[in-house]
Amino acid sequence: MMSPYSSAYARSLDSQDALAHFRSRFAFDEPDLVYLDGNSLGRLPLASQALAGEIVAGQWGRRLIRSWNEGWFDLPARIGDKLAYLLGAEDGEVIVADSTSVNLFKLAVAALRHQPGRTRILTDDLNFPSDVYILQGAVATLGSGHVLEIVPSPDGIHGPVDALLARLDERVALVVLSHTVFKSGYVYDMAAVTAAAHAVGALVLWDLSHSAGSVPVDLDGAGADLAIGCTYKYLNGGPGAPAFLFVRRALQEALANPLSGWMGQHAPFDFALAYAPEPGIRHFLTGTPPVLSLALIEPGVDLLLEAGMDALRAKSVQQTEYMIALWEEILQPRGYTLKSPLDATRRGSHVSLGHAEGWRINQALIRELNVLPDFRAPDNIRLGIAPLYTTFEELHEAVERLRRVVDDRIFARYSSHRPVVT
Description:
Strand 12 and strand 13 form a beta hairpin. This protein is an alpha/beta fold. The longest helix has 23 residues, at 309-331. The protein is built from 13 helices and 13 strands. It has helices spanning 7-15, 46-63, 75-86, 100-113, 129-142, 161-166, 190-199, 249-252, 291-295, 297-307, 309-331, 358-367, 392-407, and strands at 34-35, 94-96, 120-124, 147-151, 172-178, 203-207, 226-229, 244-247, 337-338, 350-354, 371-372, 374-376, 380-384.
């Protein structure tokens, strides 16, 4: 009988994978590289490579400024509507704009101004630190006595659901959470948390950066108010690609964009000096979009739509379960700890492992063993699984190299000093 921990078993799983053919639609420059950092930067879709040439040589090179009326001006909303389909929203509820941080600031300030008399903001200590910084900046900018409360996780892995719900009262204006936590991969029950917040009159703003394209999201079904997210992780939009924001249709006219700009202005080319917002989601735009990077988001989104989120999620769960089984059998005896939820329904598409020598192991994997994970302090080695192109054989090989780096003490050749970017 074939061992479930053998490379032959991994190959057998790949042979049964209905999504395997999508791998051929991405660029692969290093055949031996095990790339497990798609949760930070997704691989390059071949269609994006072709589109980049057309945008530069054709649209910019030949059509020049005429391209604004030949598709450029509509890009934020057109791609936003495609993202809406992935995220369980309607046309006209999602738009692509700015960065995740800028969108968070815009929506947080808009929501707080919409809730006069409420001064409390709730988040958790698992949230991406940049989100916390933005919220701190929003509080300082408004100067209205708002207080940001950071609720601690009970174990650094799972969200503090009970503690968050216990703190909800009529003074809470806004709850801001990462739907899928960036270190552990814990996934909140969006519908349950949103309903609890609504019961006391609070709004909820979700960061979908580690969910979009990897975890099924039903924004409208959950009654979600607001959401933001990046496009360069599982959406494969490219480094630094513009982000997206979601505003529930019923809130769109009630919330004002605090960074009002000409792309959100009604009839921007009338050049009126008084700002009059465009109705609907478009008034959450601010400045001129970066067309080159914006347009390159679309091929990655199209691939996900073609594959379907249900199929992607099924493969993601199968692959994270497989990785955890390999960890338990091979890596746990070598000092690796599991820092992601065991419950697949509460786990996203990356598996986080801890080790006392995590940073040095990470460096050895990258520099000698041709594995690209990423590292998050203090000891998290994150293994990102992108179902469109990650194979079971790659996961098996990654575990073998994680075993070797400890058994052969390869990590000992590296310094414990960490550079700025990890």
